[in-house]
Amino acid sequence: MLQQLRLSRESRTWLLLMLLSLISWQLGGSHGSNPTISALVLISLAFFKVHLIMGDFMEVRHAPRVLKMTAAAWLLASYLLVMFFNLGGAQ
Predict the structure, then answer these.
(1) Where are the domains of the chain?
(2) How far apart, in whole angstroms, are the C-alpha atoms of residue 73 and residue 70?
(3) Closest Cα to residue 86, out of 42, 51, 20, 49?
(4) Which of 56, 61, 65, 84 has the fewest Cβ atoms nearer than 10 Å?
(5) What phi and psi values does residue 58 have, to the nearest 5 degrees?
(6) What pLDDT does residue 48 have?
(7) Long-range contact set of residues 4-9: C-beta below 8 Å, sequence gap at least 24
(8) CA torsion angle for 31, 12, 80, 83 (degrees, to 10)?
């Protein structure tokens, strides 16, 4: 009986993505006291969601090591670049 209630990895990931989307929506709509910190948290959540999607729905988790490393490097470089420009690094 309990075995039937167990969710697949993809279902758990989907539920986590929905939860993160609700958190993002709440944080984005709250207009907190420090908009820079809110923006950094929202960007970080978005990139974490991309990581989850790449791993579970694009099957990168089961890909050859070189593809995993390339995907991780691309995601990290993109994240760092977005954070750099968001913090005003190119003024």
Answers:
(1) 7-86
(2) 5
(3) 42
(4) 65
(5) -105, 5
(6) 97
(7) 9/56
(8) 0
